[in-house]
Design goal:
With about 140 residues, this protein is an alpha+beta fold. About 35% of the residues lie in helices and about 30% in strands. A five-stranded mixed beta sheet has the order 4-1-3-2-5, sandwiched between helices. β2 and β3 form a beta hairpin. The N and C termini lie far apart (about 30 Å).
Length: about 140
Amino acid sequence: MSVRLIYASKACDLQPTDLIDILHRSQHNNLEFEITGALSFFNNIFMQCLEGKNSNVNATYSRIMRDKRHTQLTLLSFEEISQRQFGIWSMGLVDTITHEHPLFQKYGKEKEFDPFKFNMEETRHFFAALQKETTLFV
């Protein structure tokens, strides 16, 4: 069974090189465990979509839960899927350290992007729009 898991967390003690390190480790690990997805980072908040085999996605999420760079980890969405949204991306990244992405403003409530306030449908829409509109993936 394939699943899609979306979570948000606040960054804790993030060093300047940590974001790239997280991306590269994610890409390496995700290739090994056949996980695809995308990671966004804005206003010190991570929002990530993981897709793959249920056991692999859950194991990855468990590792993230133990990572001291994440606090206030919140599961926003978990669902069975018949098709991956990010089928060819081992892990894509959109962040405002290198690029002001308009999706962060579009999906910001009360003029601030805060995925902790997203409902399940909004998380789906955000990542669907991200997948369609984003070319800034490394």
